[in-house]
Design goal:
6 strands; 24% strand; binds S-adenosylmethionine
């Protein structure tokens, strides 16, 4: 729904193009952005990150936030991100990553069943980034931050806020969150931050 894109634009430093595979999300992202008056600097397009309809070397930075878990072919995705970035462009990833044999209960927020879940380990992300033209600057495990965030949610009282992901997930939302939180608490999966930059292309 474009929260990340609006957050980046709000710093005042960025013109942001958001892409998502799902047309309804693109539509809602555009409407919310207009509502808060950021439509001058943030636009959205329906697109597959593995085949971006964007000009080569036209972006200074790219952000992938909680999307990689739904992408089986990360090599195609990261290659196309590298293509649209300038030399030395920054690619920031914040995804749920797993251990090689991560076993946890479904549904989770990103998938109803194992068939729709493509978790990779941080080492696998690094391997694919390096193979697609990136140098990895840092890899940070954000589990401690996430556990603190989950416990602040548990302390919250009263009804859920009017806007939130529970609106998208419907009745299954509590179960999806519970399974994810349990898996983060047990260390089976972890929210990981990776920052990489594109290597200079040889012309
Ligand atoms: C948890 S949401 C990410 C939220 C988003 N980063 C934001 O800031 O609003 C995961 C999104 O990934 C999208 N997605 C899954 N596979 C994709 C692909 N191959 N290309 C583009 N988007 C994809 C889904 O449509 C879904 O909206």
């Amino acid at each position: 729904m474009g929260g990340t894109a609006r957050y980046l634009a709000e710093t005042g430093l960025h013109t942001v193009t958001g892409v998502d595979l799902t047309p309804e999300y693109v539509e809602v992202a555009g409407a919310l952005t207009e509502l808060v008056g950021l439509d001058g600097s943030v636009t959205f397009q329906q697109a597959d990150v593995r085949d971006l309809p964007l000009r080569s070397a036209s972006f200074d930075a790219a952000v992938l936030l909680h999307v990689g878990m739904n992408i089986d072919d990360k090599e195609s995705a990261f290659s196309d991100v590298a293509r649209v970035l300038v030399d030395g462009g920054v690619f920031a990833i914040y995804d749920i990553m797993g251990r090689r044999d991560a076993a946890f209960d479904f549904p989770v927020p990103w998938a109803a069943s194992q068939a729709g879940s493509f978790l990779a380990t941080a080492d696998e992300y690094v391997e694919v980034l390096e193979a697609t033209g990136f140098e990895v600057e840092h890899v940070v495990d954000r589990s401690t931050f996430a556990r603190g965030f989950f416990s602040s949610l548990r302390r919250r009282t009263g009804p859920p806020p009017p806007l939130g992901l529970h609106l998208l997930m419907g009745d299954e939302a509590p179960m999806r969150y519970k399974n994810m939180v349990d898996a983060v608490e047990s260390g089976t999966i972890a929210p990981m931050e990776i920052v990489a930059t594109t290597r200079k292309r040889l012309s």
